[in-house]
Here is the input.
Amino acid sequence: MAPMAPRPRRTPGALPVPLLLPVPLLLAFALLTALVVLRWGPLLSLDASLATSLHHIAVGEPALTRLNLLLTDWVWDPWTMRALLAVAVCLLVRRGAWVVGVWVAATSLTGTALQQTLKAVIGRARPVWPDPVVSADYAAYPSGHALSVTVAGGLVLWLLRLHGARRGVRWTARVLVAVSVLGVGFTRVYVGVHWLSDVVGGWLLGAALVAGAAAAYRVCAERAGGLASSGGPGLAGRRTAARMAVMTTMTTFKGVLFDFSGTLLRIEPAESWLRAALDASGTAMADAEVARTAVALERAGALPGGASPVELPADLAELWEGRDRDAAHHRAVYTGLARQVPLPEPELYDALYDRHMTPDAWIPFPDAAEVLARLHGAGIRIGVLSNIGWDLRPVLRAHGLDRYVDHYVLSYEHGVQKPDPKIFALACEALGLPPDEVLMVGDDRRADGGATALGCGYLPVDHLPAEERPDGLRPALERVGLTGPAGPSPDPDASRSTSRS
Here is the structure.
C-alpha cells in the first residue's frame, strides 16, 4: 500500500461529517412539530382541506376504501414492519453479524418509543367525522404507521448497502420502499385517521432516526477499525483493538482480503532501492553520497510503499490525493517527489520508479507464505486488495504467493481507492461473499480499516520491517477458526497461479 498523506486536523469539538446528515431532518421535524403545537393556521387549513376531500372519496368508493384498509391495517401496519425487522435481526445474528443485528433492533425500538412518547406529550386529536370509515385510538402526531414504515424501509436499504447487495436488488428495494412510504402516508389520510402533517412528521422523524443510526454505526465502525490511526502500542491501541473485537467477534469469515505493501510484503530500504537503480543505469556514486541521497529521497516520500512525504509540494498535492486511482498519476507523483532531490543523471528518476515494481524490491513477511497456504488449504477465499498504481501480480508470482490468491482488486484498475466502500464492495463481489463474511487484513488503519464501514471485519497489522514482524499475519488464522498447529512450510518454488482477476 502506498503511504497516505497526513489528514488535515479536524477542528476540536467539530462533528464528523456523517453525524451531520440527520441534522436537517431533525430541524425540519422540530419546525413542523412547533407549527403543530402552536396550531399555525395555514397548516391546519391545509390538513383539514386535504383530509375532507379524501374522506368524501373514501365514503363514496367502498371498494377502494377496503383496499386502503387492507394495505394500512395489514401490509403497512407497524407490527408487520416490526416482524420484518425481527426476521432481519434473526438472519443477521444467525450469520454472526450480531452487532448489526443489535443495531437494527435498537433503532426499531427507539422509533417505537419516540413516537409513543411524542404522541403522549403533544396529544394532538385525530380527525373526527360524522360518517367514519374506520376508527383509531390514541393521539395523532406523529403517525406511527408512517414512522414505522420509514424506519423499516430505511433500515432494509441500509442493510442491503452495508452487505454489498447487487445494484439491481438495491434499486428494486428502493422502489418498494418509496411506494410503501408514500403509500402508507396516503392510506392514513384517506381512511380519515390522520392529518397530512401527522404523516409528514412520521416520515421526517423516521428518516432522521435511520440516518442517525447509520451515521453512528459508521463512526463507531471506523473508530473500531482504527481510522483515527490510534491502534499503536499503549492504552489507545488497546481500546481500539477492543472496539474492533466487539464489532467483529462471533463472525464466521469465509474470505480474507490482504493489503499488499506493508502487509504481505515490505518494500526494500531506501538505500538498497537507490543502489539498485544506480547499478541498473550504470551510474557511480560514493557510498557516503548514496546514504545521504537515500535519506533525502525517503524524506521526500519518493519511495512507493515507504514513508509519506515530510512536506508535500503544492504542485503535487492534487495528484497525491488520487495517485492510486490512475497508473500515469502514480508514476507522475512519485517521480515528481523524487525530483525534489538532485540526482547525477535525469534518467535515474524513472529508474527508481521502475525498480520499485520489480520482485527483487519486495521482501515477503516471514509468515506470509504459511498463512496464505493454510487459508487456501482450508478453502478460505483469498483476495489481494491494494491501493496501487501498477500490476503487482508478477511480484507475488515471483515470490510463490500468487498461487494462493483467488482474486486481485487493484485501485488503479477500477479508478477507486481505499477507504472508499466501493472498492471493498468490488472485492467482496469478486470473492462471491457478503461483506460480513470477509476479513480485511492491512497495516493502514485509515485505508484498510475503512472495510468496517461496509460491514467487513478488520485485522490491523503493524507497519514494521519484515524482520521485525515475523508472525503478524498469524492472527488471521485464528479469526477464521484455524487454530491448530502449522503444517509443513510451503514450497516457495511451487508457484502455480490460480488467480482469475
The mean pLDDT is 87. The longest helix spans residues 196-225. The beta strands are 255-258, 265-267, 362-364, 381-386, 407-410, 438-442, 457-460. The first strand starts at residue 255 and ends at 258.
